[in-house]
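Collaborator request, handled under Task 6.
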Amino acid sequence: MILSKKLSFIDLFAGGIVNPHFRRGYFKRLESDFCKNNKGQIIFVHETVVNTQAKTLE
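Structure tokens returned to the collaborator:
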């Protein structure tokens, strides 16, 4: 019985199923050569909610 629970957990994890959660905002320094015009700048990546149904206003 424990083995079946472990297998189902591994199957869910491998399938990419993620519980809805809040992702905090953070500061990021652009260091890649891809961002050659903005290289060295510090930007703020805004917070977001991950894996939820979007509600739109009409």
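The cover message to the collaborator said: "The radius of gyration is 19 Å. The beta strands are 21-23, 26-29, 42-45, 48-50. Please let us know whether this matches your experimental observations."
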